[in-house]
Amino acid sequence: MTAADDVPAVLDGAVLDGAVLDALRRYDTPTVCNALEVVAPQRRGHGYTVFPLVCPWPDRGPVVGYARTATIRARHPADRPAAESARLRLAYYAHVAQGPGPTVTVIEDLDHTPGYGAWWGEVNTNLHKGLGSLGVITNGSIRDLDQSAEGFFMLAGSVGPSHAYVHVVDIAVTVEVAGMVVRPGDLVHADRHGAVVVPASVAARIPAAADALAAEEAKLIGPSRQPGVSYERLAEIIAGGGGSH
What we know:
Elements: H1 18-24, H2 29-39, E1 63-73, H3 82-97, E2 103-109, H4 122-130, E3 133-138, E4 141-142, E5 153-155, E6 158-159, E7 167-171, E8 175-177, E9 180-182, E10 187-191, E11 194-198, H5 206-224, H6 231-239
Parallel strand pairs: 1-2, 2-3, 3-5, 4-6
Antiparallel strand pairs: 1-7, 1-10, 8-9, 10-11
């Protein structure tokens, strides 16, 4: 949308019971991806980040939330009047604050060199946290790490010192970050490994699938950790279907 539009009444995705989101937070993002291969086989090759991103606090647990999206640029000043830019920025914050929550902000940096200027630092992490955002996923840059909002999750393309001419271009649009396409309202699961869009239609089935996969993997991992395990023993387990899905 542009500054001339009202903030859209998102959202494309379904709103899930909070218990489903709580259950998803028990798993890391690779495990969620594994489970998706079972409950939504067509999603095996897309819907997740495929390029490395920086996670400044890797020990923090996963975040799960509904996407609020925008695009930015930083290399050159905005090509719209200052008053229009200010209006668009306020519309952006209204979009971030819009329910349902919890939310995760997903920002695509459109510059030829993403991360030329950081949208994320002391000010925006605190503003977004105050508006209900759990964190950000972006191909752009982040800064002010020591001054960022406590507990605010960040997964970014780079860390840099300046915000340059960073400004909002569009809000509530489909974005692509590190190969992951995200629409406003999509359910996103993210941790230090990366992020994945979780289809609302299968989200409730992921915990059971993840637990079943873990049980299968344990059939192979357990013996592998035993002293003196032989190739023959592992081959026997694999032949019997252990560790596969």
